C-alpha cells in the first residue's frame, strides 16, 4: 500500500499513534484500545482546522459506528470530530498540507483514474476532457434558497440544525435567501450573479428547484447558467405509507402551490433528491443530500419543454392529466378537513371515477415502436418567442421528421415522469433513467456524463380500469409495481403531444393539467376554472432536451 502521509500523532489521552493517508484516500490510525479506525477523505471528511498543535478532522459518519469505520452507505449520518496532536509544528504543517491537499486534488485524482480506464487517446478530445474536469471538484461558495412556507414549514429549522453546521464543518461559504412569495426563487435566479457561486441549493420540496430552473432558463446567459449545479435538501420528509395511502401521500406532495397570503402550499415533494440518493442506495435525509453537494459530483439532467403557441414551461419532474391532477387540485375545496382532505377526495374520485376523451401522440424510444398506432404529422411549428428572445427557446428538433405513434382515449390518468420517484414514498416511474444506471454499473466512468440525462421521459397511461383493480394498482405505487398492471401502458418517449378532451360522461366539462406543481391549464367546469392559467386546455407539446441542466449528485 502506498502512502501520501505517515506521521506520528498523539490521541486524546496522550496515546501515541501513527496516522496514515494512503493513495486511495483512506486515513487510518489505531485508537486507544488498539482498534484500527479509518475515514474516507472523499466520502466522509468535510474539512479540518487547527489550534496550537491540535488538528481537528471534521467528518460525517454513519450513526452507531462510533466514527472512523469507513462508511459503507445506507445508514443515518452524524457529525464527528477526530482530534490529533502533532508532535511538532513541522508535523502539524505536514498533516494539514497533505490532508487538505488531497481534498483539493480530488478533481484531478478522479480524472486520472478515468484516464486509465478510457485510455489517453480518448482524453485527447478537448470536449470530453473539459466535461470531465467540470463534473468534479468540491464547491467553495453556495447560494442557498430556504422556503419557510412549504409543507410543514420545517425548512428554516432543517437549514439551521442540519445543513448549516455541516457547511461550516466543510469550510464552505454561503449566502442564504429565504423565499418570501411564490416565484421569488425564480426572480432571484433570473438576475443572480452566478460568478460568485459554485452551486445553488434549494432547502425545500421540489417546487423551489423548478422555480430556479425556470429562472435560469430565462436568462440571457442561459447556456452558461445551466452549468451551475443545483442541489435539493428535503425540507419536509414524508412518513412511510403503504396501500392506498401511498397514492394519497403522493398526491398530497403534489398539492397546488398557493399564493403567499394563503400559505405557500404543500409543495411538490422530494422526488428529485429521492431519485438521486436512491440510485446509490442512500436514504433521503438532509444530511445525505448536503453531503452529496459538498462532495461536488455533478451529473447532467434532462429538461422537458412544454409549449403551446408562444407559451413555454420548463419541467424537470412530471406532467399529470386525469386522476392525479384532479385530486391534487380539486381537494383544495376541502382544506378545512386538514390532511384528511386528500384521503377523502382520493376515495371520492376513485368511487366516482372520471374518464377523459382525448389522444396522446408520442415519439417512442427504441424498443417501444410497436406501442399505439401510426400517427401522421400532428406537430405545431415551434417558433421562437417574440417577447423573450434572450432566454432558452426549447430544443432544436425537427419533430415532423420523427416516427410518431398514437394512443386514443378515454383515459383515467396520464403521467409523464423525468425521474423514478414522484415523492419519497412513490416510485411513479421505476424504469426512469434505468438505462443510465446500467451504463454506470458496466462502465463507471460514464457516470460523469450519462446519469439522469438519457434523453427520454417515461409515459404512464392508465385507461379504463375497474375500481377495485384501480385501488389494487395504486397500492403498488410504493414499489413501482403499478406499471405491471394490464390497465397501464408504460413506455419511454422522446416527445409527446397531448390533446386533452372532455369528460366521457360529462361532455360539457373538461379536466386539469399540471406540471411540477404548477397548474398549466384548467378546462371548462373544473375547480376554479375562472382563474387564469399559464396555458389553455388545448393541445400542448412536450419535448425533452438531453442533459440540459446540472445537478449535484451522490456519485
TrEMBL record:
InterPro entries: ATP-NAD_kinase_N, Diacylglycerol_kinase_cat_dom, Lipid_Phosphate_FormReg, NAD/diacylglycerol_kinase_sf, YegS/DAGK_C. GO terms for molecular function: ATP binding; lipid kinase activity. The keyword Nucleotide-binding applies. It comes from the Eukaryota. PROSITE patterns: DAGK. Pfam families: DAGK_cat, YegS_C. Residues 137-235 form the DAGKc domain. GO terms for cellular component: cytoplasm; membrane. This is DAGKc domain-containing protein. It comes from Centaurea solstitialis (yellow star-thistle).
Amino acid at each position: 500500500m502506498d502512502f501520501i502521509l505517515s506521521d506520528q500523532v498523539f490521541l486524546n489521552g496522550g496515546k501515541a499513534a501513527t496516522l496514515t493517508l494512503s493513495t486511495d484516500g483512506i486515513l487510518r490510525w489505531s485508537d486507544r484500545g488498539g482498534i484500527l479506525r479509518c475515514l474516507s477523505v472523499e466520502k466522509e471528511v468535510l474539512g479540518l482546522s487547527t489550534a496550537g498543535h491540535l488538528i481537528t478532522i471534521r467528518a460525517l459518519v454513519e450513526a452507531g459506528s462510533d466514527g472512523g469505520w469507513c462508511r459503507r452507505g445506507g445508514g443515518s449520518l452524524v457529525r464527528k470530530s477526530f482530534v490529533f496532536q502533532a508532535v511538532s509544528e513541522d508535523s502539524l504543517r505536514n498533516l494539514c498540507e497533505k490532508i487538505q491537499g488531497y481534498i483539493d486534488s480530488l478533481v484531478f485524482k478522479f480524472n486520472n483514474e478515468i484516464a486509465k480506464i478510457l485510455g489517453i487517446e480518448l482524453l485527447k478530445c478537448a470536449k470530453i476532457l473539459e466535461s470531465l474536469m467540470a463534473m468534479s471538484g468540491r464547491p467553495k461558495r453556495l447560494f442557498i434558497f430556504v422556503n419557510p412556507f412549504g409543507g410543514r414549514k420545517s425548512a428554516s429549522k432543517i437549514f439551521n440544525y442540519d445543513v448549516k453546521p455541516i457547511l461550516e464543518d466543510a469550510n464552505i461559504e454561503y449566502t442564504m435567501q429565504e423565499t418570501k412569495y411564490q416565484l421569488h426563487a425564480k426572480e432571484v435566479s433570473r438576475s443572480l450573479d452566478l460568478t460568485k457561486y459554485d452551486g445553488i441549493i434549494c432547502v425545500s420540496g421540489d417546487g423551489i428547484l423548478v422555480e430556479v430552473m425556470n429562472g435560469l432558463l430565462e436568462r440571457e446567459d442561459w447556456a452558461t447558467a445551466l452549468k451551475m449545479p443545483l442541489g435539493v435538501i428535503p425540507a419536509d420528509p414524508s412518513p412511510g405509507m403503504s396501500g392506498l395511502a401511498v397514492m394519497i401521500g403522493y398526491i398530497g406532495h403534489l398539492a397546488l402551490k398557493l399564493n403567499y397570503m394563503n400559505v405557500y402550499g404543500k409543495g411538490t415533494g422530494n422526488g428529485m433528491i429521492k431519485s438521486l440518493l436512491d440510485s446509490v442506495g442512500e436514504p433521503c435525509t438532509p444530511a445525505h443530500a448536503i453531503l452529496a453537494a459538498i462532495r461536488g459530483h455533478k451529473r447532467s439532467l434532462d429538461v422537458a419543454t412544454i409549449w403551446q403557441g408562444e407559451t413555454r414551461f420548463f419541467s424537470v419532474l412530471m406532467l399529470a392529466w386525469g386522476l392525479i391532477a384532479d385530486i391534487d387540485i380539486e381537494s383544495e375545496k376541502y382544506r378545512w378537513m386538514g390532511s384528511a382532505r386528500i384521503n377523502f377526495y382520493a376515495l371520492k374520485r376513485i368511487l366516482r371515477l372520471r374518464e377523459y376523451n382525448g389522444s396522446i401522440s408520442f415519439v417512442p424510444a427504441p424498443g417501444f415502436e410497436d406501442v399505439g398506432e401510426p400517427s401522421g404529422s400532428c406537430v405545431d411549428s415551434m417558433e421562437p418567442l417574440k417577447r423573450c428572445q434572450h432566454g432558452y427557446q426549447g430544443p432544436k428538433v425537427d419533430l415532423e421528421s420523427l416516427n410518431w405513434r398514437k394512443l386514443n382515449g378515454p383515459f383515467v390518468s396520464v403521467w409523464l415522469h423525468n425521474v423514478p420517484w414522484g415523492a419519497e414514498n412513490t416510485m411513479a416511474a421505476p424504469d426512469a433513467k434505468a438505462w443510465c444506471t446500467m451504463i454506470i454499473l458496466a462502465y463507471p466512468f460514464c457516470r460523469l456524463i450519462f446519469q439522469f440525462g438519457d434523453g427520454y421521459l417515461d409515459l404512464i397511461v392508465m385507461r379504463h380500469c375497474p375500481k377495485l383493480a384501480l385501488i389494487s394498482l395504486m397500492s403498488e405505487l410504493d414499489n413501482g409495481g403499478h406499471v405491471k398492471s394490464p390497465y397501464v401502458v408504460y413506455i419511454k418517449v422522446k416527445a409527446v403531444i397531448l390533446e386533452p378532451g372532455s369528460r366521457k360522461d360529462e361532455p360539457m366539462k373538461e379536466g386539469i393539467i399540471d406540471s411540477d406543481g404548477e397548474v398549466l391549464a384548467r378546462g371548462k367546469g373544473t375547480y376554479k376554472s375562472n382563474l387564469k392559467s399559464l396555458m389553455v386546455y388545448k393541445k400542448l407539446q412536450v419535448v425533452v432536451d438531453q442533459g440540459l441542466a446540472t445537478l449535484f449528485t451522490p456519485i
